[in-house]
Amino acid sequence: MSHILKSTFLVLLLFAATSCxxxxxxxxxxxxxxxxxxxxxxxxxxLVLNGIHRGLYSQSQTVFPGGNTGRxxxxxxxxxGDNLTGILIHSASANNxxxxxNMQWIDHTVPTSLTNELLWYHRYNIIAHxxxxxxxxxxxxxxxxxxxxxxxGQAYSYRAYAYLSLVQHxxxxxxxxxxxxxxxxxxxFSSDAPFTSEPRSTxxxxxxxxxxxxxxxxxxxxxxxxxxxxxRAAKSxxxxxxxxxxxxxxxxxxxxxxxxxxxxxxARAGYDLLTEADWFAGFNSNSLSEVIWGSNVIxxxxxxxxxxxxxxxxxxxxxxxxxxxxIADRRVVDAIPATDYxxxxxxxxxxxxxxxxxxxxGGWANNTNPLYTTEAEFDAAEQAIKDKYGMISGHNTxxxxxxxxxxxxxxxxxxxxxxxxxxxxxxLIEAEAEAMQGNLGPAQTALQALVVTRNPAFDASTFxxxxxxxxxxxxxxxLEMWGEGFGYTNHIRWDDGIDHAANGGSGAxxxxxxxxxxxxAPSTNNDWIFKIPQAEIDANPNLSxxxxx
Length: 549
Hints:
It is built from 23 helices and 10 strands. By secondary structure, it is mainly alpha-helical. Among the domains are: about 300-420, no CATH class; about 425-520, no CATH class. The protein has a two-stranded antiparallel ribbon.
């Protein structure tokens, strides 16, 4: 396909197979094996699948060839959507891993940027590995067993997941463009070098392929044996609920509202909403009842200063966080009712202790909070927050600092799971999809079921028009899913721009955010579409300079 896959063949296929006995699978579940051996048994196919699982959270070069230490895949891609849209707000200028450049709308608009190249590279590696399993199983002579169907369902789901991610970043939004003619991304069905792809297919063609893959996944899972393993690790395996959840996302973002609503209901079945105690546990473990799918990060393979929590959690012991506390939009936080416990996840009155704060209000000498009349009170408030959340002395605090995302072992660099899908999202999808059909009663019911567990006083029936109800649904997306990366796709679906200045301001610094301070709506601003990696255009015979976004 490109230099990404063509010149550096899949790592899982490079080396001779190693014995796949139980001990080997436990100790080295993702070691490289050859193509023929990968398809020689169900156990070996599971080995390939485990490699894809690991590839979601590892530094890219450790699983796929030609990667780079600067990105640990979904550790970066997951929170990126909130970083881009000003939901996860920077309070200072730290730029580790290009996180500030990403926030300032520089990174994804440059064809040679690492983010553009590695996101493309990672998703197509998922597709190539999924193709290996799909082609091998469909064209092979394997006995039709529950174990084989479970692997096939996961492979189809992964391919759909990767294509949806690619078309949403490198193609124009389905609802704001002309999907029948807008260029999407190349389709790749091969599993062997030289990985020749098609030219850029239309956005519609990619969405059609995603539907085919998800329907195939659901059919395979219907004959499957369920997830292998138990506990946190089991949820790294995709299952039928995951496939339904991906189909709900797919349908929502293409405006197939009826399908989105029904698939969301199927996806969340059996995944109870969190209790208050669990909501405040930090969103760091697949063991939470709401988690439908998540990466179980192996302790021995932590990404350290490349992790999701390094970029987004204010308890992580890394310079990106210590020097640049992440804050929430004060307009959102200030609107949280006093009866909603989620308000407690944001330290509105945290003292601004950072002398390098972008708003120039850091340190006691620049304090503007009337709560602190003496330096001793200011210092005591800082220490109280650090003690409460397990932060170390080097951490700074800042007003509206967010503590929804917390490590299991705060103040360390220990690894945590990466939650990729949970049932709360599915309630929001159902509510939005029903509201967009004008079905206010079902939309209110879905929204009520979610929000009342966070705010006992919530009453969805007070939103009596479609416009009012949609405004509340959008607000709940922002509040409930803060830091989980949905801002980018939500803004594109709603055709909403970014305005840190409106309605009293978000609390972000215009000096720091520069051109990203105000961003026009996706329908009028092509910068919402990621640039295709220049290396791909240079190497792929089916792409040319005219294919660049």
